[in-house]
Amino acid sequence: MANPSQLTFELVTPDHGVVSELVDEVQLPGAEGYLGILPGHTPLLTTLTVGELWFRKGQQKTYLSVAFGFAEVLPDRVSILARSAETADEIDEVRAEAQRQRAMGELQKPSTTPDDIERIQASLMKALVRLQVANRRRAPRA
Amino acid sequence: MPSLLDYRRRIRAVKNTQQITKAMKMIAASRLRKAQERMVGARPFSKQIVRMLHDLATVVDEEMHPLLATRDLSAPGARVLMIVVTADKGLCGGFNTNLIKAASNRMLEHPTRHHTMALIGRKGRDFYRRRGMPVTFELSGIFSHLKYSHAQEIARVAMEEFTSGRIDGVELVYNEFKSVMQQRVTVEQLLPIPRLPLDSAPTGGIEYLYEPDPQKIFDSLLPRYVEFDIFHALLESAAAEHAARMTAMDAASKNAGDVIDSLTLHMNKVRQAAITREIIEVVSGAQAL
Questions:
Q1: Residues of B identified as active-site
Q2: FRET partner for A39 with CA separation of 20 to 30 A, picked from A58, A91, B9, B142?
Q3: B-chain residues near A74 (CB < 8 A)
């Protein structure tokens, strides 16, 4: 089978619509590190953590923040099933910053139990990724 | 006999009511459209999650997962958690009553089972609280801003109760959106997850790399499946509620129109009678002169 030259990138979340694009390259936050995917990738199933995801069309990169989910990679397709996902434009920086501050504040408190810490860390991670992705909007790099 | 003024007052009152019901109908119609869009928006996700489960089920030992552990729900003394999804508000026809009736019937059909309740929506909560049913969980006021995290919260409680062994099964009772004119009460077994719909679609025999191992992916995918099942039920229920309210308010507006018509007829009769009486009085007064 000839190698496909492009990937169909699909992202679905339960809350809102789907992204469906023809792209050249995708990078996603896999459970065991970031994965870069080019057309013709070996079939792969992986879980996703909180992180930054981007896909590239020609020179144009689009960034998204995703939080938890699953990715299925086929030679000509990447399907993502995420609990939540936001494009750089959708992110409310003020809210993300507030979330970061709150999480930091909670971590300082002596009363937090290990369970709490895990939850707060997840929340902090999400906030940081949101801010990072939002930053990409301001300083777009080719 | 009511006077002309009485009739005028009553017509005005009914007209006011009709205005309210008309407005409620319009609001319900626009909310229904939004709710339907969300339902459609959730469809790709459901397709995708089922497909991934398919792919995984061929390589993992699916019987191993605690959420799939079958327990006999018809055995005497089985403990079942009923998740009952009602609306927060009334004025939507038989929406809530039908649902509560169905849930209660379900419990009567299985008198040997021991039921606890998880109540979603204010109406169901009020009903079962008054009757002193054991309630494990309640959540109301969510339908005005329904989010996925609400479903997660419900799923977390249900799965925790189930895996800890406090209950043997979970049933979900909700109104399914059949069409704008029709809602159907649905009773669905949520846990243990009934046979996954795994046998239908072929997997194509693709060999995947798994990261981490397939069992771990499967284990974390199943709870998502349960969450999504609940989320789907909530979306259905929200759409069905708006549809029911729209139909009910449409009927109410029509009825109000009928009442106004008949009151207007009576009022005209009374007015006519008064005029006739006055003419007779004038005529007979003139004759007496």
A1: 92
A2: A91
A3: 206
Range(s) within chain B of domains with CATH label 1.10.287.80 = 4-24+248-288
Q: Between chains, do A46 and B210 touch, taking CB under 8 Å as contact?
A: yes
Q: Is B218 on the interface with A (CB under 8 A)?
A: no
Q: What is the pLDDT of residues A39-97, one digit of tens each?
A: 988 888 888 888 888 899 988 888 888 888 888 888 888 989 888 888 777 777 788 88
CATH number given to B4-24+248-288: 1.10.287.80
Res A109: pLDDT: 78
Q: Which of A8, A28, A70 to mutate to test the interface with B (most CBs of B within 10 A)?
A: A70
Give the residue from A20, A42, A45 with the most B CB atoms within 10 Å of its CB, the best one to mutate: A45
Topology of the domain comprising B30-247: Pyruvate Kinase; Chain: A, domain 1 (3.40.1380)
Does residue B221 contact residue B49 with C-beta atoms inside 8 Å?
A: yes
The full set of domains in chain A, from first to last, is: 7-89 (2.60.15.10), 91-138 (1.20.5)
- Contacts for B143 with CB less than 8 Å, ≥ 6 apart: B87, B88, B121, B234, B237, B238, B241
**Structure ipTM:** 0.73
Contact B256, B249 (CB under 8 A): no
- Provide the number of CB pairs (under 8 Å) joining chain A to chain B: 70
Q: Nearest by CB to A45, which of B148, B151, B217?
A: B217
B4-19: pLDDT as tens digits? 899 999 999 999 999 9
Distance between CA atoms of B167 and A51, rounded to whole angstroms?
36
Which residue spans of chain B are classified as CATH 3.40.1380.10? Answer: 30-247
